[in-house]
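Q&A log
Question type: sequence-to-structure
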Amino acid sequence: MMVRPMANEESWDDRLLKWFAKTDLFHFIAARIVVPFWAWKTPVQPRPGGPHPSVQPSDNVQCMMNLIMPLKDKTPIGRAKAAQAIAANREAIYAGLDNVGTVHFARFVIIENNICMLSVYDGDFTNYIRDFIATIGNVFNAVVDLVEDGEAVIPCERNVEAFIEWVHERDLFQMPDVVTDLLSDDASRADQVDDLRGLPRRIILQLRANANVSLGSGYRAYPGYSVAQVRRQLGTGW
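Response status: OK
Response body:
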């Protein structure tokens, strides 16, 4: 007599698979064999960087740029040169961001062998970069000159369109807030096995093609009172 598991009980093979999925052997097979085979069978192109297309006007508010620029010199000396270039041109860079007028905040960080510019801005990405580089392109050349393939767009102020594309290529691809949205534009997914113990194939392949990503559009909000409102109430003006 065969005993059938109750509807709310896992079968022995499900329990075995769940246990196996947590083992080092499974991760080795998945990472070294299964995923490379998927990538060979169904090639995935890296997604472009920058924000998602704007559908609603509010989508143009507080957009993120995560510009990752690999340094030519990947030694402490190279990182020191990058830090020095930012420090030496700090005031001019900040003045340029002020003149753009749509930037909420921006900061430069060095992560391993990359000089990164992380910023939040309103409006269109292309206009943001064009206004920024048209204002201080001659200053930003000192930074770009330290970056791999930077010489292709120097002087930045004379190669504005090329520089915009250069930045776009190095801006991190932004994963949707709901990562399964990556599947929404894939018409061929219906006939594919999209499950590696709960991780959809297309998401795995995209993260293989895009090693560095921004996870979602980030937290976006304004404080209860803006700086302008506070200064107006205090009568301090600008």
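Response note: The chain is about 40% helix and 15% strand.
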